[in-house]
Write a sequence for this structure.
């Protein structure tokens, strides 16, 4: 396996599940396509309520959650996810254009596992996926 390739199937038998939540469909679909190429089973949501409903059914291992959603903030969505049985153990990543220290602190206080600034680099994504895969092993 070369360094630019990540395949989560090497650490688990069943594909891991990722939920991508972003109101910009092009951003959400781009990340979803990339995750699918890596062997993840992926669902996409463009609004907060849709993300919560899909999460309840899909039960993702990792959630990439935009902070600036039109109906609720990503902070509120994360809090709701953490209150659910499935969301208590999911690895939830705040994906946002805001990268001030206060934004990172708020994300941590809200229950996010990671705070990532847009655009997310390949190295950052690789690090997150390795963490998710290690937790699932």
């Amino acid at each position: 396996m070369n360094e630019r390739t990540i395949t989560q199937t090497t650490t688990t038998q069943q594909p891991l599940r990722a939920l991508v939540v972003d109101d910009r469909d092009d951003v959400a679909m781009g990340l979803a396509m990339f995750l699918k190429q890596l062997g993840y089973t992926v669902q996409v949501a463009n609004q907060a309520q849709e993300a919560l409903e899909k999460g309840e059914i899909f039960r993702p291992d990792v959630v990439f959650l935009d902070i600036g959603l039109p109906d609720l903030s990503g902070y509120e969505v994360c809090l709701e996810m953490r209150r659910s049985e499935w969301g208590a153990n999911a690895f939830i990543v705040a994906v946002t254009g805001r990268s001030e220290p206060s934004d990172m602190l708020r994300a941590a206080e809200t229950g996010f596992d990671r705070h990532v600034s847009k655009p997310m680099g390949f190295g950052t994504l690789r690090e997150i996926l390795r963490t998710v895969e290690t937790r699932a092993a």
Q: What stands out?
A: Strands lie at 17-21, 41-45, 62-66, 91-96, 114-117. The two ends are 19 Å apart (CA to CA). Residues 1-12 have pLDDT under 50 and may be disordered.
